[in-house]
Amino acid sequence: MKTKLFTSSALAIAAALALSACGGAANSAGTPGGTASAGSNANCPGGEIKFGIEPYEDPAKLTPAYDVLAAALSKKLNCPVKVQVVEDYSAEVLAMRNGKLDLGEFGPLGFVFASQKAGAEPLVSFATAEKKLSSYSAGIWVAKDSPIKKIEDLKGKSLALGSVGSTSGDVLPRFGLRGVGIADSDLKMDYTGGHPEALLALKNGKVDAAEINTQTLATATAAGTFKQDDFRRIWASDPIPNDPITVRPDADPAFKKAVKDAFLNLDPADVAKVGAFLDVTPPGPMIEVTKDNYQPLFDLAKIMNLTEKNL
């Protein structure tokens, strides 16, 4: 069963805003040799570019992948790019609002709050090999031999979710449940802390069902840690446009243009490792996006009455 919300032109998402500090794994990528000549380079405000990443996967896995992308971006701009995988979705919004980040990759719904609360401006996202905006889907899965056959059967059952405020790991599954008359209070929701953790809860028999999006499904299947034949998907969302990479609103217009051009001119090989986490394989180039691509997510936030206090 699918829950209809998104159109083919703009597809959907969710994330968070509970004001907290920025943390997580950090690293810096420069030009070959480990440094980039900043000096008076207009593309290098403050001597380095601070690039925040939402924690949609284990930071220890994300950081090396984003370091490859950051190194390529650094070479294009002649400026070190420091990657920061933040502690949670709200921390990234807060960091951009407080001027601690120059660039930020947000989940689709996270972008809603980053736009509203921090003025984040979308630049680019991840394209397919056909140069189309890539997407993914939220899903709810159960064990193959489970008596649960459809989403309506989840009333009174336990459901593993990812992180509070996650587009595919929290809000969209709850939106799907609401669509069949199941309120949050009608089942036991277990927030496990992330997409991989939700999958593991189902795999280990800790819950009756779990959210598993197509990105996590692809990663776990490729790693051999999840056998799809042992489980069944009972619900899926419409496609969700992949994460936008955004820039802080008060950045110099020349810097915004330079960064966008640099991203658009990256070789697909430079984003391949990140693309694998986003289920974009084989990857295409980066593609320009605007707020319009994510309008269904703004609509979703209104439908679900979401504010930063909920997340």
User: The CATH topology of the largest domain, please?
Assistant: D-Maltodextrin-Binding Protein, domain 2
- Radius of gyration equals 19 Å
- Total domain modules: 2
User: What oligomeric state is this?
Assistant: single chain
CA-based shape: globular
Instruction: Give the helices and strands as they follow along the chain.
Output: EEEHEHEHEEEEHEHEHEEEHHEH
C-alpha end-to-end distance: 27 Å
Helical fraction equals 25-40%
- The percentage of residues in β strands lies in 15-25%
The largest sheet, given as strand count, sense and whether it forms a barrel, is:
7 strands, mixed
CATH class (first level) name of the largest domain: Alpha Beta
Give the integer mean of the pLDDT values. 88
Spatial sequence of strands, sheet with the most strands: 2-4-3-5-14-6-15
CATH architecture verdict of the largest domain: 3-Layer(aba) Sandwich
CATH-defined superfamily of the largest domain: Periplasmic binding protein-like II
Uncertain segments: 7-26, 31-39
Total beta-strand segments: 15
* SS-derived structural category: alpha/beta
Q: Helical stretch count?
A: 9
